[in-house]
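Worked problem 6 (solution included).
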Amino acid sequence: MNCLLIEDDEVSRIQLKGLLEEIGGIEVVGEAYDVESGIDLIGRYPKADLLILDVELPGGTCFDIIEHHKKLPKLLFTTSHEQYALSAFELNALDYIQKPISLDRLRLALDRLDTPPAADHHSLPPLQEDDRILLCCNKHRYFKKVSEIAAVLSDENYTHILCSNGRRFVMKKTMAAWEAQLPNELFMRISRQQLVNTDAMDCFEVKERGGLLWLRGIKEPLEIKAGALKNLQALVKTI
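Solution. The predicted structure is:
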């Protein structure tokens, strides 16, 4: 696989090439260090498979480079700046990695290169705890880590996403799709309608036919049925 690298810091370029060499299967065929040379680089390698690029560069940002080309390789952003993530994902970026870059984090991003566009939950790429996703509310889009999701609640073909800061989102995405993507070591399907982050669970109250479950950061508790309560109790070790 052919890769282009746009990075103004020489040390970062050397380190990144070392990580790519350790992973294997990817050859850096061209490098650039600023906006002008980046524009030229992409023009000289129109059939490159992957473009790894920093955001802030001499002469502007990587987005100044991108707007000069109608056809681009798959994009992987590496940067020290979190504020550009939304713009990156609006370009369908493969990933947005904040420096310093670890071998495991880079390998995880590159694993997604071979993931085809998903039409159903069986082909959706799995999410990791530290992955960032976009959640929409009215005209605003919010940048959230997977670990910030406290619960996902089913509403037919829609789901309500409760985040640990109390914000609530609604998406046209099935519970099955969420369950397939979210890390199963962190999220548990306690009922047909409820998928919860087990690390977000705070306490529950047992009632006659079920109970109430409080999640950290969420003001109102979830009503849970007796079957869900048994699933929760199975998580607790005897002391």
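Discussion: The two ends are 53 Å apart (CA to CA).
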